[in-house]
Design brief:
Elements (H helix, E strand, L loop, with lengths): L5 E3 L5 E3 L2 E2 H8 L3 E5 H18 L5 E5 L6 H9 L3 E4 L2 H9 L7 E3 L6 H9 L4 E4 L2 H13 L4 E8 L21 E2 L4 H10 L4 E7 L10 H21 L5 E3 L17 H19 L5 E4 L3 H4 L3 E13 L3 E6 L8 H5 L5 E3 L9 E6 L8 E8 L7 E5 L19 E6 L2 E6 L4 H4 L5
The structure holds ligand LLP.
Length: 431
């Protein structure tokens, strides 16, 4: 199996985080997302321990909560002693309601509204990651009006192409995010920021993309950023105390994907960062990283109930399920690979090829094409693996389909962390 939290029982049922998934589907209904708290915590601690050990003792991962944002996960982040990356006042609010200490929150986004900026400052968000000169000026103005001085990082585009899917690659010069070094605008932004009274510049941020398997692109980004830090020190006498290298480490979606050793990757990046600090004559900054996918993806699976089998003679077979792009739009958007299996017949030979089709009135609503599985029957339990990141977070009400229930598994116990939506809750804001 692609992750060590998956096994098959003697009855041929898929077992996830120690629980029988077929039993879970019966108990809670489908579509159902199961999350493995032990796996989430394991990943948090791999990042935290490796970063403290290989970079500096105060270095820290920030969970990029856009990957999956709900109250309970911020409680985990709090107790794991890590920070969070938030991209909206909505995420900040959710973290606050969970009792997360907002001084460990970093507020991202290229289009923060005035009311979001005010909300974040008033509620004590530790750092903003500012994305443009106008945003820095807006933060300065609003902080001033509130009688506060706000700590900020500047988001810089290092001009790196990490060879991942174009829609999730963000570090190159033509990007809606950040300010480029290549065009010199990054230097101008630093100068302007240093002249403002109500913002305190603490360092720089870059994010080069997502689902990146190798660690070399992160080292390339670190090289560019540390040279930038050295240049800025020479030009303006300002030495950054923080360098945020963003998120983006990959996860295994299928057996074809290589195994990833996160600890070794972080060590590899740290070795380069230390050497570069020496080379460029800058002090080792506190390093921040923003893993989202690699914290939650393989801590999640989604269970569906099979609907109808459609065999198109001489062409293709489709099995329909009771969910689809409304809870997992990733194949529709990015043709993302997934491992799909029948959870109630997990030890039967996979000798039948079929495409797993969602329930929406949209041809593109596909979860995965040409999957090999036992010939599916109505009411089989279909499991899609590695769905913890960017599935529920990107869920929609298209076709007025309610969002699924999310159940956490902790030490063999199961409990609801997000209730299943009802028709009533779905229309609760409608007048
Ligand atoms: N930091 C920043 C500034 C980001 O923009 C992102 C992701 C992350 C951290 C977290 O990256 P991760 O470790 O999760 O790769 N919806 C797409 C992914 C979009 C990623 C957006 N930014 C998907 O489903 O693949």
């Amino acid at each position: 199996m692609i992750c060590n939290n998956l096994t098959v029982s003697e009855a041929g049922h898929l077992v996830f985080a120690g629980v029988d998934t077929v039993e879970m589907a019966k108990k809670y209904g489908t579509p159902l997302m199961l999350l493995d708290e032990g796996k989430i915590r394991e990943k948090c601690s791999i990042y935290r321990n490796a970063m403290q050990k290989y970079f500096t003792p105060d270095s820290m991962p920030l969970y990029a909560s856009k990957a999956l944002s709900f109250k309970y996960i911020y409680k985990i982040a709090k107790s794991e002693n890590i920070g969070i990356d938030c991209v909206s006042a909505g995420e900040i609010y959710t973290a606050q309601q969970a009792g997360f200490p907002l001084e460990r929150a970093y507020f991202h986004g290229n289009s923060k509204t005035d009311s979001e900026i005010r909300f974040a400052i008033e509620n004590g968000v530790g750092h903003f990651v500012c994305d443009s000169v106008e945003e820095v000026e807006a933060v300065n103005e609003i902080a001033g009006a509130l009688g506060r001085k706000q700590k900020i990082l500047l988001r810089i585009t290092p001009g790196i192409d990490p060879h991942t899917h174009k829609k999730i690659s963000t570090g190159s010069v033509d990007s809606k995010f950040g300010v480029a070094i290549e065009t010199n605008q990054a230097y101008e932004l630093v100068k302007e920021t240093l002249s403002l009274e109500n913002v305190e510049l603490t360092g720089f941020h870059c994010h080069i993309g997502s689902q990146i398997f190798e660690y070399d692109p992160f080292c390339d980004a670190a090289r560019i950023m540390l040279r930038f830090i050295a240049d800025v020190k020479k030009m303006y006498g300002f030495e950054a105390s923080q360098l945020n290298l963003g998120g983006g480490m990959a996860v295994r979606y299928t057996e074809d994907d290589p195994e990833i050793d996160y600890d070794a990757n972080i060590k590899g990046i740290a070795d380069i960062v230390k050497a570069l600090c020496g080379e460029f004559g800058v002090k080792m900054p506190q390093i921040l990283m923003e893993p989202g996918r690699s914290i939650v993806a393989d801590a999640g699976i989604t269970l569906y109930t099979a609907g109808y089998l459609k065999e198109i003679t001489g062409l293709k077979n489709y099995i329909s399920i009771d969910g689809g792009m409304t809870d997992n739009p990733r194949f529709t958007l990015y043709q993302s690979p997934y491992t799909v299996l029948l959870a109630n017949r997990a030890n039967e030979p996979c000798d039948y090829k079929c495409t797993v089709a969602g329930r929406c009135c949209e041809s593109g609503d596909i979860i995965q094409e040409d999957v090999m599985m036992p010939k599916p029957r109505r009411h089989d339990t279909v499991a899609v693996l590695t769905t913890g990141a960017y599935n529920y977070a990107m869920a929609s009400h298209y076709n007025k389909v309610p969002k699924p229930e999310v159940v956490m598994i902790k030490d063999g116990e199961d409990f609801t962390v997000i209730r299943r939506e009802t028709y009533e809750s779905m229309i609760s804001n409608e007048v």
